[in-house]
Amino acid sequence: MSGRAWAIGIVAAVGTAGALATAFAVGGDRSGQRAAPGPVVETVAPAYRLAASSVAPPAPAAAARVAVRRLTCDNSLGAARPRGGRADVVAPPVLLMSLDRFRRHPHRHFRPTDGRPFAAKSPLVVDAGATARIAVPRADRGHVWLDYGVRRVPAQAGDRPHTLVIARTCAGRRPTGWPGAVVVDGARCVRLTIRSGASPAAPATTVRVPFGRGTCRGR
Whole-model pTM? Predict the structure, then answer.
């Protein structure tokens, strides 16, 4: 990947924002909140936009390191009412909305543009009362990133794209939702390791999601 700064209005998956907006209903008092005075909270819901800030991609030597993003009620969109869809990726307690919608796309669809990687919008929903741990396996770090949570402008250090998400839900009986995207530097079979609970020792489910025709064939 290019060493230039990511303009994190990265290339977003197009043609699906409307579908995501109708499939992901957000409740709670965060849906329109803006903090004042102080940093502005960019809610970007429900059709997700990456934060309008620039952050440097990890250096090659650091690609294998784990960059952690902690998701809480404070950086969520509040209670979610996912309606379900054929392209949702489900691995309890996690639902990644419409992420599995690229399996028939040509590989050129995922090429970086002007040094900016491809970002597939996919709101994250976690079951009520649960904690979820979502990780990019070591072999895929440097090629796959996660970019989740409501942003603050100007950007904070913890806003950088990450390879591990630990998400704790809001109190209450409804699932919690966060805006975000899975970011890739080209066509590939994206693997994500999902655990219920924050511990890395918890039993894991590995999901494989094709970003491009045939990328997960035989895997």
Answer: 0.72
